[in-house]
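Fold sample X.
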Amino acid sequence: MKKSKIIFWIATSIIFFWCGIMTIVFFGSETSKAAMAHYGYPPYFGPMANIFSIIGAFGLVLPFVPARLKEWAYAGFSFNFIGAAVSNWAVDGFGFQVIFPLLFFIPLALSYFQFHKMEKMKAAS
């Protein structure tokens, strides 16, 4: 179980840093607003997506959050990463900016599978 916890926390920390901390740092910045405008999103979309991202990031790391809500956070981040890749491709064409958000599926999947592995181990105990 120790190995699973280590993998879980490293992977989840990457997601938390990128989708929680970085979102807080750039929340409402001119760079963020310009990016949303560049992709053709309405002005309300950026803050809404940022708030959901922050809530989801904290939902993954806080131990008292029920497993069902963590599932929603994992799903939300999956949709977010896919949506970012599609938006980049549709507006700027194929390039690294399309691949970059999809790279976050690696720590997200590691976190997800280790979370369920730890839950099964807890239930078996």
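Fold sample Y, listed below.
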Amino acid sequence: MDRRSIQISVLAHASILIGFVFQWSFLFPLLMWKTLKHSKYSEKQARQATYYQVFALLLILFVSFTAEFILLSQPVGEGKVQKVDKNLVRLVKLALYSLLSLYALYGAYRCSRGEEFRYLIIGN
């Protein structure tokens, strides 16, 4: 396996870190997958990273909506309006995204060593 394929693969997996700033981070490995067709290895790793980051985005959205729904369904006194604690929801999202990012960084590490990596969630 050549060095360029490894670099593309590492960048594809590590691009999940962009998600801390830009929610649509899956666009970066998607662009790598579709434009940088250097080798089968780098193409497969970029595809895996894209699918994983789409999964991560959908999971974050699901958890956010569920957390807000749970917070809104709490009983309140008569005449009071229930408010969602946005900071709590942001904290939950940050914690979950951090865990998901650690797994993707593990994938980047494995690729940096030239090893094959498959996400458990996505598989083949």
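Sample Y note: The chain has four helices and no strands.
Also: The mean pLDDT is 84.
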